[in-house]
Amino acid sequence: MTSSLQKLKPQPNAADLSEQVETLRNDLATLTQTIAEMGKAKGDETVHKAKSKVSDVRDHAADVAETARLQAMELQDKADSFIKNQPATAMGIAAGVGFLVGFLGSRK
Q1: What's residue 3's pLDDT?
Q2: Rounded distance, CA 103 to CA 108, Å?
Q3: CB of 19 within 8 A of CB of 25?
Q4: How many Å from the N-terminal Cα to the C-terminal Cα in the chain?
Q5: Residue ranges per domain, the chain?
Q6: Do residues 31 and 39 lie in contact, with contact meaning Cβ atoms separated by under 8 Å?
Q7: At what angle do helices 14-85 and 87-106 cross, to 10 degrees?
Q8: CA-to-CA distance for 91 and 94, rounded, in angstroms?
Q9: Neighbours of 93 (CB within 10 A)
């Protein structure tokens, strides 16, 4: 019975094969284009995320710098107030720090 079924099946010819190869080429071209579009979309998304992260880091750094600047100004105000209220003590501290820095700097 299988031999009679094989006889009923049409035999593939060169035109059928050529048509199937052309279909495969078109499918591969479509697949290649789809993959390229997905890659570009992912690349664009990655660039956007990276720019967003850079912006966030830049904003955070600016906040930290501003906080440090305000703290330095506060310390400077406290130092100025201390010097005005206790000039002799301030001079003694400055001389002691200068002596210590000189002593440590001269050691090798």
Answers
A1: 56
A2: 10
A3: no
A4: 104
A5: 22-97
A6: no
A7: 130
A8: 5
A9: 13
Identity of the residue numbered 96 = G
Q: Is 37 left (phi over 0), alpha (psi -120 to 50) or beta?
A: alpha
DSSP assigned state of 12: P
**Backbone torsions φ then ψ of 62, nearest 5 degrees:** -65, -40
Please give the single-letter amino acid code of residue 57: V
Tokens for 8, please give them.
Answer: 């009923």
Return the residue matching tokens 């130092």. Answer: 79
Separation CA 90–CA 83 (nearest Å): 6
Structure-token pair, residue 107: 């050691």
Question: Do you know the residue count of the chain?
Answer: 108
pLDDT of residue 17: 81
Give the confidence band of 41 by pLDDT, cuts at 50, 70, 90. confident
